[in-house]
Amino acid sequence: MNQLKFYKPKSQRIKSGALFGILLIVSALMVVLRIMDGSYFTAIVFLASITACSFSLISIIFNKPTVIIDANGICNNTNMMGLIKWEYIDDFEVKTVMFRQLLVIKLNKQEALLKSKNLFSRTLMKTNINSIGSPVAIGAFEFDEPLEIVLEKIISFRSEE
Questions:
Q1: What is the mean pLDDT of residues 6-18?
Q2: What are residue 136's DSSP bridge partners?
Q3: Closest CA to 78 of 135, 126, 138, 132
Q4: Is the separation of the CB atoms in 106 and 94 below 8 Å?
Q5: What's the pLDDT score for residue 37?
Q6: Contact 79, 69 (CB under 8 A)
Q7: What is the residue-wise DSSP string for 9-31?
Q8: Any idea what the Cα angle at residue 135 is, between residues 11 and 160, rounded to 5°?
Q9: Mean pLDDT of the chain
């Protein structure tokens, strides 16, 4: 199966790994302190944080693809966006918002796509509409290449399919 895979750049992996490592240590410390205080509900919340940080660290260590493009569409593995099927995609645009570059995916059936997502994803995606004009955007920090090259590769891949 023909795919394009993109990975988080090494510098971004190091920053994310350090951040999640610190959060993991702090959360573990908080679990111990909360259990000693008898605050079990708070300890459970910090256990959930440990679980999330652990999964994130494993993903960073094993360098799993952040974005996969195949015959089905574009799948962002770093957030709750999931797969965006080609049937919903009209065009792409590179935008800079708050000093960060984004690959904005312009949609033709925005409401249909949003209905296919769970409530949490849909709510997060809707927040993008006012600021960038589309519910779907992927940050440049999710790609190990400049967005201009990524965009060329996506357009070339799509024309070959």
A1: 92
A2: 105
A3: 138
A4: no
A5: 86
A6: no
A7: -HHHHHHHHHHHHHHHHHHHHHH
A8: 75
A9: 89
Q: What percent of the chain has pLDDT above 70?
A: 99
Strand, coil or helix: 144: coil
Question: Rounded to whole angstroms, how far apart are CA atoms 92 and 146?
Answer: 15
Compute the distance between CA of residue 125 and CA of residue 136 in angstroms, rounded to an integer: 6
Q: Determine the straight-line distance between the first and last CA of the chain, rounded to whole angstroms.
A: 11
- What is the distance between the alpha carbons of residues 125 and 119, in angstroms, rounded to a whole number? 10
Beta carbons within 10 angstroms of residue 138's beta carbon: 24
Please say if the pLDDT value at position 1 is more than 60.
no
C-alpha–C-alpha distance, residues 152 and 5, integer Å:
14
CA within 13 Å, CB half, 130: 4
User: What is the residue whose two structure tokens read 């296919």?
Assistant: 116
161: pLDDT strictly greater than 80:
no
106 - beta bridge partners?
Answer: 91
Question: For the whole model, what pTM was predicted?
Answer: 0.76
Q: Is 6 exposed, middle or buried (0-12, 13-18, 19+ CB in 10 A)?
A: buried
Strand partners, 104: 93, 137
H or E element: which one contains 50? helix 40-61
Rounded Cα distance, 36 and 51, in Å = 20
